[in-house]
Amino acid sequence: MLIAAIVPDEQVPVLTKVGLMFTMFALGTGGAFFFAWLFKRTLLRGEQPMMILELPTYHIPSLRSVGLHMLERASLFLRKAGTVILAISIVLWALTSFPRKADSTPAEQIAHSYAGQLGHVLEPAIEPLGFNWQIPVGLTTPLAARDVFVSSMAVIFNVDENEEHATVPLRQAPLAARWPDGRALFTPLVCFTLMVFYVFALQCVSTIVVVRRETGSWKWPLVQIGYMTATAWLACFVVRHVGLALGFN
Fold first, then answer.
1. Which whole number is the average pLDDT over 23-52?
2. What is the pTM for the complete model shown?
C-alpha cells in the first residue's frame, strides 16, 4: 500500500517497485533472525530446559471442534485485547481531533491538534531521516491499524474525500508536499526510508496488548517498543545517509 501510495511512478519503474516489496520482506525476515540470535545470547541467555512431551494420537479434526476452538480464541482475544485496543484507538482519535480549531480544514485541524503539536516536538529527532512533522503524525494513527497510514496522510495533506476519482488526489497530495525551502518531501529516498521504518518499528497495539497479557507485565512490551523503535530510527538513518552518499535525493 505504501509503495502504491507514495512512491512516484515516473521516477520508480514497476519492476523496481516489485524489488522494493521483496527488499522489505527480506529486511523483515533478516531482522527477525538477527534479533532472535542476539537475544538468545544476551537477554534470554541460559541453560535450555529439556522438553519432554507425550504426543497424542493425531486425527483429522472435525469442523465442529475447529469452529469451537476458533470461537473460544476469538472471544478471548476480544475480551482481553479488544477492550484495550478500543481504548487506545479512542485516545489516538482524541489526539488528532483536539483541541478543536474553529473554521479550519482537516489539515489545519491536524496541525493544531495534540498529535500535530507532538509532531512538531518530534521533528528535530526525525528530521535527520528526511521526515518533517507531518510524517510522525501519520505514524501515530497506524498504532491501531497499520493500513490507516495512507488515509491519515490523506487527512494531513487535505485530500478531499468527496472529490471524484479520489485515488488520484490521494496519491498526488503527499507527493506535492514541500519543505519550507521548496524541496520535495516525498522523494524516492524518503519513501524507501519510510518503508524501512515500517519494517522495524512496532506499530501494532494488538501485539503490545497480547505480549502484556501473555507475560503478565509491561516489561517486555516496553522492551519491544524501545529496541524496535531504536532499530527503526537507526536503520532509517543509515539508509538515508548511504543513499545521499550514493547521489540519491
1. 88
2. 0.74
